[in-house]
Structures are given as C-alpha cells and as structure tokens.
Amino acid sequence: MTMPAKSIQDLQMQLSPQYRSGGWGCRNIERGNMYLMFTVLLLLLHLLLLPLYLYLTWHHRYWRSRGLVTAKPLTLLGTYPGLLTRKSNLVEEVQQIYNKYKSKYRAVGVFVTRQPQILVLDPELAHEVLVLNFRCYRDSLTSSYMRHAKWDKYARRNPFWASGNTWRRLRTEAQTGLSVNRLKQGFAIWEQSGKKLTNFVNQQAKKHSNIVETRDLCFRYTADVMCDFIWGINADTLTPNAEQPNKVQEMASKWTSYAFYMISIFMASIVAPFSRKLLRLRFYPKETDDFFSNLTKESIELRLKSGDEIQRVDYLSHLLKLRLEKDASHDDLVGHALTVMLDGYDTTATALLHALYYLSEHPSAQQKLRMEIRNAMENDQSLSFDQLCELPYLEQVVYESLRLSSLIPQYTKVCTHPTNIQLNEFKQLEVEVGMTIMIPNYQFHHDAKYFPDPKAFRPERFDNGAHHDLIRKGILLPFSDGPRICMGMRLALLTLKSALLHIISEYQVVRSKDHIETAGDSGFGVVLRGNINLEYRRLLK
C-alpha cells in the first residue's frame, strides 16, 4: 500500500522546534561550511607556499650528499638569516659557526639563503685559496654581481668588481699608478696634508676645549689626501674655518656608503637574483657618477692648461699617461680614479679612527710610539718616505689596529676552475665552478689560538716583523693576500702612518668621558659607532 505523499509543510511540522527556529542544526551546518572553507583556504595556502619552500630549501641537502659537515641550524633563510632580516650582524652569525666547528674541521658547508657555500675554518686552507691555488679561485663574490649591474659603467671599470682577464687588465693599469716609487715621489702630498691636519686639530681643540670629534677629522683628512693625489686639487676639508663637509667630501661619503650598502643588498638578493636586473640595482649612485666625471674632466683640463702634467707626480699624471699610451677613454679614467678613492677614503679614514681610539685607551703604547717618532725626527720637523716606512713600532701599531677592527671582516672567493679541498687525511671535497668560499678573517684575527688575549690592544705581539709570518700563514689578513690582495694597500698604509706621525708627535690623545659604542654596521663588520669625541692635548716641543 502506497503511503500518501506529505507536503513540505507537514515535514517541517515534524522537525524539532530548534531546527524550525534556526537553532543548533542550522548553526552546525554553518559551522561545518566554515570549517570546510577554512580547510580549503589552508590547502590553497600550502599549495602556494610549497613552491617557495621547495625553492628555498632545494639545495639544503647539497653538502650532505658530498660528505661535507653542514653547519646547523638551518632555516628557510639559510645559515645567515640576518642578511635578510637585518636583525643580526654577519660577523656574529659566522662567529657562532666558527666557534662550534673550528676545532674539528677545516671547513663546513653553509647556505647563503638558498645557495651552498664553503666556510673556511683553517687559516692554512685560507692561504691555499688566496695564494697557492689562486688559479682556481680567481674571482671574488663582488665580481659575480656585475652581470646584474651592466649599466654601472664605473663599477665595471674597477678591479674590485671585475673578473677574469678584465680584472687582470684593469688591475695592471690602475696599480702602476700606486707603485712604491710613485708614492715616494708624491710623498710631499702626504706631508702637506699632515701639516694641515695638525693645524686643523689645533684650531678645533682651541674652539672646543681640546675635544675633537675624531670620525669627522679622519674623513676630512683622507678626503684632503685623496683629492690632492688623485685629482691634484685642494679639497678645502682641512681649512681652519671648514665647519661643514664641502661638496667633494659629501659626494665621496655618499658614494662609498652607497657602494658598501649595495654589497649587502646584492648578497641578500641571492635568494632572487633576477630582482637585481628588474630593480636595476647599481653600486654607484647616478649623482656621484656625474659629479666625479665632471671633477675628473675639469682636473685634466686644468692640469693640461698649467703644463704640470710631467712635473707633478700624482695619480692624475698616471691617468694622463694612460690616456696617451693606452688610448684610455674618459670613462676609463674616471673608473681608475674611483678605484683609488675606494681604497683610500672610507676604509682608510675608518682605520685611522680606530687606531687613534685604541691609542687613546692605551697611553703607554701611545707614549712608546711618540718616543720612536721623536727619536727618528731628532732635529728635523719631518721624516722622509723611507724613514716613515722604517719605523717598526708604528708598523706594529697600524697592524694591531687593523687586526682588532678587521674592517673587511670576510673575503668571499668564487671557484673558477674545478678543484679539490683536502678536508682531512682521508677525504677530499670536489669544488665545482661557481661555488663560493668564505674566508672569515675577523674570526682568525680574534681567535685566542693565534692571538692570546685577542681583545687586548698589544702592538708588541708583532715584534720583529711577526705580522709578515702571520700573513704568510693565512692568519692575519687585513688586506687579503695573493694576486687579489688589496690594490691600495701601500696607499692606505702610507696615509695611516703619515696621519699618526703628525698627530702623535704633537698631541697626546686622551679618551673622553663620553660613552663610545662598538656595534655591528650595515651587516658585515663590528665598528665604532656615532661620534668619537677624543681629547687632544698639545705637547711641548
């Protein structure tokens, strides 16, 4: 017997009151729909993030499969997350790995974001990479960036960013103008700038109760020296009434700070290297390109007009020689001029700042240096180039300052020819072309194994030329080593020594009561921060 069909109204009447009134039944259905929607959204989110996760971690088993111990822990941001987050300094992150593995291994595998890299832990291996096996590690990490900054015309003409045969040609052309003989012939430039330096200190000390802000002082000095040596002009940064940085110093500071900052940006962007071209990243700002191009052009015209292109020995005379003998273009000359500026302005000023700070904290070392300088001077008011270079304690003070500050805290080389690294007596690691190798010289410089009481300022640790042996062993690397050693090393040492000679012979430098902070910089080093107010007390002759 067939039951009569019930109307919708009859069915609704049989349902519970809660359902008819939109009670728990409806709410459960709605909640179920929400859970379903949330689950779908999570699934979609995972599907979207999965490619990103795979992209970031795809290579994280690279070293395990090759038998190289991998530094832990690893995150999606790699071994050095601070490169992207900017919340920690690279030196500090490298230090953690170095401390953990240095006693057991010559090298460990790390990851710069997603890219595998070898971190050297043994100075002997560092010497092998930089010197003994240089043919397999010809390029630096910075040189690998230039393929993404092709429009940066002056950076491309700097050996610091060059690779392969281009690097060798540019370095040969630029370095000839920085030979010992040329620096010796141009030593009057450093003598003149040194005298202007002490006069400026005297004027500032009188005005501010012997307190002189030393960071600004050091940058004024290197700006004066570099402008005179490179372009043959007076920068007017050390004139008695020069309160604010002038245009030359302003442009030089903007140029160098931008260049060093962009190095960290290029390193961080390794996670998405295509972004460099997309964003048209460059190392030198367009504004400073135009300024230094015009400065070089005007300096050349002035030199030719004066007829001093042969008589005055400086870097500008070398540039004129390149134009005549090598048919160098104007852009080539500007590129070479900025190469010298990179070596002699910012890092040299910062090195001088640290040296004066360390001497202010160690009066006995300062007095020992002063006695050496005054004994060498005897009745003369100055020293010759050769006499300056032969002061042993001054050399020790400079190298101890460079060790402590370690302004370039790591060097990163690129494998350019397949080679091997001997990990231990039984195991070799094959190194592929394109692999990067970081040498953590800051860690070597501050390792008690190589430098007992490493935080102490002790120039005596380099007695009897000990620094030369430490350099040969890969332990002390303030200028790197090998064929790609800092091209401006002699220039920087001369500038540092000349400034210390003039200041320490005439002033006692005393640490002020101001708090001075030492902290991480834009991502690479650990340096003095803020204003460095030191007291300069004029000495009796």
Task: Describe this structure as you would to a colleague.
The longest helix is centred in the first third of the chain and has 34 residues, at 24-57. The protein has a single domain (148-538), classed as Cytochrome P450 (Cytochrome p450, Orthogonal Bundle), CATH 1.10.630.10. The model is unreliable at 1-9 and 11-25 (pLDDT under 50). With 541 residues, the chain is of the alpha+beta class. 53% of the residues lie in helices and 10% in strands. The chain has 23 helices and twelve strands. Helix 10 packs antiparallel against helix 11 (214-231), helix 10 (187-207) packs across helix 23 and helix 11 (214-231) runs antiparallel to helix 16 (330-344).
Tags for this entry?
Cytochrome p450, 53% helix, disordered N terminus, five-stranded mixed β-sheet, 23 helices, single chain, alpha+beta, 10% strand, 541 residues
Q: What does the secondary structure layout of this molecule look like, with pairings?
A:
Elements: H1 8-14, H2 17-20, H3 24-57, H4 82-85, H5 90-101, E1 107-112, E2 115-120, H6 123-132, E3 139-140, H7 141-144, H8 164-175, H9 180-185, H10 187-207, E4 211-213, H11 214-231, H12 247-268, H13 274-278, H14 286-306, H15 315-325, H16 330-344, H17 346-361, H18 363-377, H19 385-389, H20 392-405, E5 411-414, E6 419-422, E7 428-431, E8 436-439, H21 441-445, H22 466-472, H23 489-506, E9 507-511, E10 517-520, E11 526-529, E12 533-538
Helix pairs in contact: 10-11, 10-23, 11-16, 11-17, 12-14, 14-16, 15-16, 16-17, 17-20, 17-23
